[in-house]
Amino acid sequence: MGQKEKEMNVEVCLHFDGGCVLHTAMTEAMDNSGLEDTRRRIRNICILAHVDHGKTTLADHLIAAGGAGLLHPKQAGKLRFLDYRDDEQLRAITMKSSSIALNYQGHVINLIDSPGHVDFCSEVSTAARLSDGALVLVDVCEGVHIQTHAVLRQAWIEKVTPCLVFNKIDRLITELKMSPAEAYTRLQGILVQVNNIINTFRSEKYLSDVDSILGVADNASGAEDNVDTEFRSSQESSHVEEDEKDAFAPDRGNVVFACALDGWGFRINHFASLYAAKLGASEAALQRALWGDYYYIPKTKKIVGKKASGGKLKPMFVQFVLEPLWQVYDAGMQGSSGQEMLSKIIKSMNLSIPARDLQHKDPKVVLQAVMSRWLPIANAIFSMVCDVLPDPINAQADRVLRFFPDENVNENLQAEVLMALAKTKQAVKTCDNDPKAPCVAFVSKMFAIPIDLLPQKGPNGELLPDIREELSSLGDVGHRECFLAFARVFSGVLFAGQRIWVLSPLHDPTKGEHDRKHMQEGIVQGLYMMMGRGLEPKQSVSAGNLVAIRGLGQFILKTATLATTPYCWPFQSMTFQAAPIMRVALEPSDPADLGALTRGLRLLNRADPFVEVSLSATGEHVIAAAGEVHLERCIKDLKERFAKVDLEVSAPLVAFKETIEMEKTGSLDTAKASEMIEKTTANGRCIIRVHVSKLPSALTKVLEESGDLLQRILHERGIEHDEDHRLFMEGKPQDPVGALRSRLVAAAQIDLAEDNMRKISRKSDIESQKWVNSLERIWSLGPRHVGPNILLTPSKVADNDTIKPSEQSSAERVFIKGIPRVSGRLGMCNMTTTDVEQSNALLIEAESLESSIIAGFQLTTAAGPLCEEPMWGLAFTIEAVLLATPKGMQNDDFMRTSDNGPTPTVDQYGPFSGQVMTTVKEACRAAMLAKSPRLVEAMYFCEVSTPTEFLGQMYGVLGKRRARVLKEEMREGTDMFTVHAYMPVAESFGLAYELRRKTSGAASPQLVLSHWEEIPLDPFFVPRTEEELEEFGDGSSVPQNTARKLIDAVRRRKGLPVEEKVVQHATKQRTLARKV
Ligand SMILES: Nc1nc2c(ncn2[C@@H]2O[C@H](COP(=O)(O)OP(=O)(O)OP(=O)(O)O)[C@@H](O)[C@H]2O)c(=O)[nH]1
Ligand SMILES: [Mg+2]
Fold first, then answer.
1. Ligand 1 center–CA 260 separation, angstroms
2. How far is CA 294 from the centre of its chain?
3. Which GO molecular function annotations are given, in alphabetical order (predicted)?
């Protein structure tokens, strides 16, 4: 039925020219005054794709066409204009995103080229944040790869409208030798794949929307139920409508077919208009029929569907689009024998091609000359960008929700504050370019350029004062480099010389100018339009444009929100696909250069959006990068630009985590005294008992993923009064705290069924209930107060039974109860402040020791007992009892031991709070060691493509590196295999190099940080059971297992003691029988 309808529509259009409008025409190009609104002619776009799919090559052609003579068309595709760093040219990969302003038929197109290598994925985030549209490239020969997924997700998260570019179509003809029909099937396959990816994002969003609505419904009273249901069903239906449309459809004009290398590309509308007159059909009808299962019957001059075609005809896309392309390529590749055919084609297309090019010996040059004149790629791309991608006004109306997600404003605030906040938000939403509107800009990264490259002249050609002097007067470090902010103005107008607030992500706009801690005032020293490496000075830049800002280097570390009013929410932070995991320690070759290195590191930290610079506990300078290529670039920059000294670089420091085995210790039972570890402080006044158990893994995951949100809920702005806050948050339609709460509860429940599959379900039910109940007792999270470990307050059972404080009078012994602060903030329990009898000194002291217990917990979770790495997924229950007199001592003895009488805080063992802290730490460590500790390692998701003949070698390399292969797939139509595997980060160093060497450069991997995984080996294994003893003997000859080796390596690196067998009297084995 559906098919039939489609056929009929097409026919109607064919015969009656039914005026179907398929392009999204440029709307509302005029403003009220009748003048054209310049903002309507701006497009901010980025190019996104997997590595090597041809982004920079495509950018070259766009620059050649719209860059006002910056690049000669002959150089396009060869120069890679935006890869202006020497290492980018050398390695032929892009390492940073860079922007250029182009012109096309009165439109300003700000183009950002981004890197495809996963190490530089942060640059994709910065590019997407500033763009409204994205060109997503797919190499049709390689197909969809992991970074294609990643960039589509990034575009989706940032609410950037994507368009699709099928690139490298020439490879289907020349390399894969496909027929047009085969090529069509392949293109269709990729299109389906890409659309499916977007559909999964849609359904994820749909599910999470429904979840949050259901969450509210659960909380809401019965009376509100009906309203909710109605709301829900209306939401659902709108989603369904949206879902029915594919994100990319050639007939809707958002797909370009291209070959960036040869400089050609087209949308199907080009062929629709070409054939309209010839076939006597309307352009609109042809546009629909040129993609999909439509067939042209020459006799009847009708377009029909598959059934009516009789199975003999070729789809119209094959017949009318691909076949002519193939003909040109066939003729071109034949050299002189194809000349005649080529001339015919050229004539029929009415092209003028210089004879010099046509007679060139290299058929590639001839093909390029013909194709790039017939179907210029820049026209196809630019027209798509202008037709389909939104201008800043439309885009910002949509994207404002991403920038300022529904902030929970306390309605009790003053009306002026609320007005000011709403005004700023409205200005961003409408992309208000009135100079009187509040100016708001977002800086997505800082970048450094050598000072010599800064323009010497101002916007009006006037000579500028020497910037070096200006910088040194500002105290800017490193006068060789100048820091510019890569930004976009979202509302108002930014002027050179303007004073502006630099708001940090923690800024609380409801406090206005009083929130001095999170805002600084800077002066915009200079504004530049970016032209790749070059900069063009500007006097002012209005809303909707990209800009480089000079003068804010000292205020901004990596990103910031700029605003002329303090009543502006800081923009939501960007999301990054990976984390900086590759760490190395650095030191200058000459110790005297330490100062230069520290300065250089500071500059590097500012200039690179992703690198993390830190000082380790042992005093080493450590930098963390996303991967090997990123690290190499950072070190090169340090050596050559920022520090200018020789460096010694350590072997990679791999991060590990520590946990305990799940099997035996998933229970939260603190009642068993045998499972508790007891320690007493040195002065004997505080007894600490610790129980540790492993968190259900889903709970660990939620805690890890919600780090930012937890940070905000637990430690940030405007949440002064817990109870008020909870009441305020509840009942909000998008209640992040409520959502997190339900996620935590759900995680505590579902997981046990999976983790303890072998246990009886009834028991696991009880267990899971225990976990859910325990969520009401969260005292603290660690390490650094937001990590994936939980400190629980002692349960009621413990309170009454285990420690039995009632045996003695409460004046002698006080139980430290702890306050479940985290649970309180999350709204898991009511925070009732206990009425402490202030007169009781011991009770007051007990209360003051709570912070020491938390500090002890933070210390332990930051550095575990195996190799001082952070702990992961553990729940500690700490019971502490404070005694009036030290354990085992009479009151009189105690009095005698301290000279100044019974002063409880300071004694001969040092401050009491410190003693409690260390005892807690020791007890926690001991508890963990007693429960089968395990090492946790980071895993990469690894994708390798290799030709069949090198499959064996590739598996050899993967096997040696403990990789776990997930799937292998033959890529259709090629002899290439794609293998997906998990690989420990610790084993991944030099993988790309080794693979390339073993496969003569045919295989190269892409590594993306995936998850943390427990190594299922006991690092302290000694044979115990009969079978083990039989197999391994007494264990002395058992080689150390991987876990132990990794632990020892980390300990050695950190200078911690390592148990090693040292051969003391090694003698060379001699053959006794000697020849004399
Ligand atoms: N055959 C063919 N090769 C192409 C085409 N487009 C680009 N290439 C080649 O693909 C390689 C990579 O091109 P780039 O433009 O550097 O790719 P990229 O996507 O910018 O790569 P990264 O920035 O490193 O992610 C170069 O060798 C190009 O010559 C094409 O249409 N056909
Ligand atoms: Mg590139």
1. 8
2. 41
3. GTP binding; GTPase activity; ribosome binding
**What value does the mean pLDDT of the chain take?**
80
The token duo for 449 is 């350029």
Cβ(145) – ligand 1 distance below 6 Å: no
Ligand 1 within 6 A of CB of 53: yes
Token pair 């820091």: residue? 483
- Whole-structure pTM value: 0.77
Phi, psi of 713 (to 5 degrees): -65, -40
Smallest CA-to-CA distance from 20 within 283, 344, 314, 337 is with 283
In single-letter form, the type of residue at position 47 comes to: I
Q: Are the beta carbons of 314 and 39 closer than 8 angstroms? A: no
Sign of CA dihedral 448, 452, 457, 463: positive
Which residues have a Cβ under 8 Å from the Cβ of 585 and sit 6 or more positions away? 616, 620, 621, 622, 649, 650, 653
Distance CA 581, CA 486 (A): 25
Q: Is 7 in the pocket of ligand 1 (CB under 6 A)?
A: no
Best of 96, 261, 333, 1006 for a ligand 1 pocket test (most atoms within 8 Å of beta carbon): 261
- Centre of ligand 1 to C-alpha 706, Å, is 38
Give CA–CA dist 46/155, Å, rounded: 10
Q: Which residues have CB under 8 Å from 884's CB, separation 6+?
A: 685, 811, 812, 813, 842, 891
Torsion-angle region of residue 301: left (phi > 0), alpha (psi -120 to 50) or beta?
Answer: left
> Which residues, at least 6 apart from 704, have a Cβ–Cβ distance to it below 8 Å?
787, 788
Length of the chain: 1076
Per the CB < 8 A criterion, the answer to whether 962 and 987 are in contact is: yes
Burial (CB count within 10 angstroms: exposed 0-12, middle 13-18, buried 19+), residue 127: buried
Place of tokens 């229970």: 667
| Ligand 1: centre distance to CA 262 (Å) | 11
Q: Are 161 and 128 in contact (CB under 8 A)?
A: no
571: how many CB neighbours lie within 10 A of its CB?
24
Categorize the per-residue pLDDT at 48 as very low, low, confident or very high, splitting at 50, 70 and 90.
Answer: very high
Q: Quick one: pLDDT at residue 1022?
A: 74
Task: Report pLDDT for 708.
Answer: 78
547, containing H or E segment = strand 546-550
- Ligand 1, residues 50, 51, 57: which to mutate, most atoms within 8 A of Cβ? 57
- Give CA 948 to chain center in angstroms: 33
User: DSSP letter at 805?
Assistant: G
d(CA 112, CA 109): 10
Residue at 483: amino acid letter: F
Chain segment 506-535, per-residue pLDDT in tens:
888 888 777 777 889 999 989 999 998 889
Strand 612-615 versus strand 621-625 pairing type: antiparallel
Cα separation, 269 vs 804, whole angstroms: 83
The per-residue pLDDT for range 336-348, each reduced to its tens digit, is: 777 788 888 888 8
* Confidence class for position 725, pLDDT limits 50, 70, 90: very low
Give the nearest ligand 1 atom to 167 CA: 31
pLDDT of residue 227: 36
Q: Is the CB of 782 under 6 A from ligand 1?
A: no
Rounded to whole angstroms, the Cα distance separating 354 from 491 reads 48
SS3 labels along 654-722: CCEEEEECHHHHCCCCCCCHHHCEEEECCCCCEEEEEEEEECCHHHHHHHHHCHHHHHHHHHCCCCCCH
Which of 388, 403, 823 shows the shortest CA–CA distance to 572?
A: 403
Nearest CA to ligand 1 atom 12: 52
What DSSP character marks residue 638? I
Q: Which atom of ligand 1 is nearest to the CA of 116?
A: 25
**Which of helix, strand or coil describes residue 24?**
coil
Strand 560-563 relative to strand 546-550: parallel, antiparallel, unpaired?
unpaired
Task: Measure the CA–CA gap between 419 and 311, rounded to whole angstroms.
Answer: 66
